[in-house]
Amino acid sequence: MATMDDVEETPLLEDQMCFSLYAASRAVTALYRPLLKELEITYPQYLVMLTLWEHGDRGVTEIGDALSLDSGTLSPLLKRLEKLGLVRRERRSDDERSVRVTLTEEGDALRAKATHVPGVVSEAMGLPPVRFAQLQATLRELTRSVNAYRQTL
Prior knowledge:
This protein is mainly alpha-helical and 153 residues long. It has 2 domains: 31-115, Arc Repressor Mutant, subunit A; 118-153. It is built from 7 helices and 3 strands; from the N terminus they run H-H-E-H-H-E-E-H-H-H. The chain has helices spanning 17-37, 43-55, 60-67, 71-83, 105-113, 117-125, 129-151; strands at 58-59, 87-92, 95-103. Strands 1-3-2 form a 3-stranded antiparallel β-sheet. A hairpin with a 2-residue loop joins strand 2 (87-92) and strand 3. The relative contact order is 0.10. The model has no long low-confidence stretch (mean pLDDT 92).
């Protein structure tokens, strides 16, 4: 008969990295919700807008690569942003399969209304600037490492 000493210890939820990342991601995403509601966009739409504000016109593939989103997820986001009048989608004349996304005047103007968002998020995290930067660097390193490992599977 097996005793408690013979049974492997059940992993604890609080010790799981996946749960810590999941809980932190949900908390931060929930923080964005009321901030972005004022802008009348969702969190994923905000990420698309950030990409366009930073880089200007981009191809759908470039946006998808930057945000790690596939076209099945990205296309509805872009359609909704277009309906909101924030972006324009145009097929390239030299390659009908390729779609370029450009900001409209309204989309460009939204940037000024969104400038407070990163500061509010930073303040809510309660981290000094150096720790905030370190955390970002650690998360980027984690993402790169896990993605590289996944390629070996």
